[in-house]
Amino acid sequence: MAHNVELLFGPMLIGVFINSILYGVTIVQAFIYFGNSTRHVLLPCITDVGITSSSDPRWIRYFVVYLLVAESLNTIFDIGVMYEPLVHLWGDERAMIYVPVMVVPDAIITVLISTPVQLFLAWRVRAMSESLVIPGFICLFTTTSFLGGLATGIAVSFLNEYSQFHQFEGAPIGWLVSSAVADALIAASLVWSLYQKKTGVPSTDDLVNRIIRLTVQTGMVTATAAILDVSLFIASTTTL
Predict the structure, then answer these.
(1) Count H helices, E strands: the chain?
(2) Burial of 58 by CB count in 10 Å (0-12 exposed, 13-18 middle, 19+ buried)?
(3) Using one digit for the tens of pLDDT, what is the confidence trace for 181-199?
(4) Would you kindly state where each structural domain of the chain is located, as residue ranges?
(5) Cα–Cα distance for residue pair 79/63, rounded to 1 Å
(6) pTM surpassing 0.70?
(7) Strands (E), the chain
(8) Residue from 143, 134, 132 nearest 186 by CA
(9) How far is 158 from 104, CA to CA, in rounded Å?
């Protein structure tokens, strides 16, 4: 029993810890984005590439607020996913049989975060590359990911036992694979589009190189995490 608890809830608990840390990073980023007086002191490398709330259209500022609220809900749901089996139902066999209630809204809020972000980045790729092909593929995989996430949340609400997960494993696999492909396309296309913007002028190319480094650091991390996510999920289906 103890081994099963460790195998089932150990990775989930570690994931919640990491998510909570990244949520703190999100709060700091939002503070920097909206805080005019502290932006240059805290993150001069970001302000140098022009990421400021005052220079963005109003709808983008509202979008950032939406993401902040959604990330807050996501963190609450993640904590709830762990609280139910490890505190509320600790010592109860139901904790090893039934999926925590918060898994359903957690899956849905996750795609309500990732889908708008990926579509926004597809729009940025479209604006930079002046092409519809790659943004079209990004939107296709993003839409597939969104539908897979919704299907996963709905399926869990009806089949809420761990032993029943194999009955709808196609939905989360489609969700995670599509999301990973979209993230990889976004990172690669942004880097390529930025590279094409080089003019040979040292000052301009230096700025482009900074943006490329920032894109690689954030985009590739996201894509790598998505690939690891789907790989671990596929590998873990045999352990349920």
Answers:
(1) 10, 0
(2) exposed
(3) 998 888 888 888 777 777 7
(4) 1-97, 99-240
(5) 24
(6) yes
(7) none
(8) 134
(9) 10
